[in-house]
Design brief:
It catalyses: (1,4-alpha-D-galacturonosyl)n+m + H2O = (1,4-alpha-D-galacturonosyl)n + (1,4-alpha-D-galacturonosyl)m. By secondary structure, the protein is mainly beta. The protein is 7% helix and 46% strand. Strand 1 and strand 2 form a beta hairpin. The longest helix has 12 residues. The chain is elongated.
């Protein structure tokens, strides 16, 4: 009866309705989307558009504080001095003018600031090329904006991480090197009410743009570019954040286009172009036996092309917590190796990961209106924990094909339903609690390398 109720409820709602998080026998939890507000077509505050507002806006130009903008001199102190001034003024515009290249070392732009601050990046901000010249006090961050409220980032400029030498030193490129972190290009940390519009990120040392410990962040018109073989260069990374909207972005990198990790909820992505890269991912979650909680994630309308994964949830063995209330819908896949994948045996490690019984619980995941081509036989893969199976997986209107073979669905310990046209068939979701896949032997070691 519960299964019939779930099917009828999902069929009866439109594509913009709430996310159903069916717990596979534990009842239904509806996670509303009232938090999501379609982006208004806000006018930018660019210098050329100020007009009558010029008397109200207070421009603070980094050049006035000694920035050379020649791509050679270190402009870090000039940026900090200009920031201190802009932060102290109401209606200030922290201005990075166009037509110049500003070299900046690791810098933290601290708040809180006065109201209505605009960060207008029109020129190019570049990082030092040599890892040896990096500030050792900030090994994982380049540009960090901290404790800001109601701030707008805009201007159409470029944030360039000069990452090629960092990539060459990565253990994923040179196996003899130790594995260590590299800087994230831009981090918005402990902020609220932030808008980021029409910025360009490229060649970051690792992650391009991170939202951390923040609430109510809207990102639109952003473009992220890095080579397909650049390691760990995620496009947009969300951690410990709520009420984040990402819209009308184009991301092509060497890692996940968008990644969402622990303590994040109410995240919506809309009109996303992804490729190359590793797709759009929730996770990884549960590394080093940690607790993870991720809820209310929606991807609506995307084109994913030439990536190793399409839409993915990835967790490490040994973790705990849960990921639930997820919907991926209206997605076109073009030559994607793993279009739909849940992997609870994720192991991005030089050494094999030993089998463990605990796992992050995955439930209430809807895949709807997804079509396109798979480069591998397993167009859909649900590799779930033997002891903490996935439940409440819903497939509706799936059409994934291979140009040169038969597409298949793989299941291990995954339970759910399908309706409408579902190709390839997913009968393994309904066959048993651990349906369709061979159980892993208790002492077997599993190595799932980065997909």
């Amino acid at each position: 009866m519960l299964l019939l109720f779930v099917i009828s409820k999902i069929r009866g709602e439109s594509s913009d309705s709430n996310v159903e998080a069916w717990e596979g026998g534990e009842g239904i939890e509806e996670i509303g989307e009232k938090w999501w507000v379609e982006e208004e077509e806000d006018d930018e505050i660019g210098i050329e558009m100020w007009g009558a507002e010029v008397s109200r806006k207070v421009p603070v130009n980094v050049n006035s504080f000694g920035a050379a903008g020649d791509g050679i001199a270190d402009d870090t102190q000039a940026f900090l001095d200009a920031w201190q001034k802009a932060c102290s003024l109401e209606n200030a515009v922290f201005l990075v003018p166009e037509g110049r290249r500003y070299k900046i070392n690791a810098t933290r732009f601290k708040g809180p600031c006065q109201d209505k601050l605009t960060i207008e990046i029109e020129g190019t901000i570049i990082a030092p090329e040599e890892p040896a010249l990096w500030d050792p006090k900030s090994p994982r961050n380049w540009l960090t904006f901290n404790k800001l409220t109601g701030v707008r980032f805009q201007g159409g400029g470029v944030i360039d991480g000069s990452g090629s030498k960092w990539w060459a030193a990565s253990c994923k490129i040179n196996k003899t090197n130790p594995c260590k972190g590299a800087p994230t290009a831009l981090t918005i940390d402990q902020c609220s009410g932030v808008r980021v519009k029409k910025l360009n990120f490229q060649y970051s040392q690792q992650i391009h743009f991170q939202i951390s410990r923040s609430d109510s962040v809207r990102i639109s018109g952003v473009r992220v570019t890095a080579p397909e073989d650049s390691p760990n260069t995620d496009g947009i990374h969300i951690t410990e954040s709520t009420n984040v909207a990402i819209q009308n972005v184009h991301i092509g990198t060497g890692d996940d286009c968008i990644s969402i990790v622990n303590a994040s909820s109410n995240i919506k992505m809309k009109n996303i172009k992804c490729g190359p890269g590793h797709g759009i991912s929730i996770g990884s979650l549960g590394k080093d036996n940690s607790i993870a909680v991720v809820t209310a994630i929606v991807l609506d309308t995307a084109i994913i092309s030439g990536t190793t994964n399409g839409v993915r949830i990835k967790t490490w063995q040994g973790g705990s917590g849960y990921c639930r209330g997820v919907r991926f819908q209206n997605v076109k896949m073009i030559d994607v190796k793993n279009p739909i994948i849940i992997d609870q045996f994720y192991c991005d490690s030089k050494t094999p990961c030993k089998n463990q019984t605990s796992a992050v619980k995955i439930s209430g995941v809807i895949f709807k209106n997804i079509c396109g081509t798979s480069k591998t036989p397993e167009a859909m893969k649900f590799a779930c924990s033997d002891t903490v199976p996935c439940s409440g997986i819903v497939l509706n209107n799936i059409n994934l094909e291979r140009e040169d073979g038969i597409a298949e669905t793989y299941c291990n310990c995954a339970m759910g339903i399908d309706y409408g046209v579902v190709k390839p068939p997913a009968d393994c979701l309904k066959s048993s609690a651990c349906g369709g896949g061979d159980k892993v032997e208790e002492n077997e070691e599993i190595l799932h390398t980065e997909l």
